[in-house]
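User: Show me a protein chain along with its predicted structure.
Assistant: Here is one chain, sequence first, then structure tokens.
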Amino acid sequence: MASLYLLIPIAIVFVCIAVAIFLWAVRSEQFEDLERQGYDILFDESEPEKPSKANTPPSESNKTP
């Protein structure tokens, strides 16, 4: 029973923090235009990446005997 006197205020603090974070997200328009991110993935217009030199195998002249 004594542990409830500690756990209930901690739970209330966590709920208040979660509500504050949610209200911040709504006010800073984090939930506006939810579909844009999905379209960015489907209709990506960027150029394909070129392979880097780090991924290429070493040449025959660099091998040690």
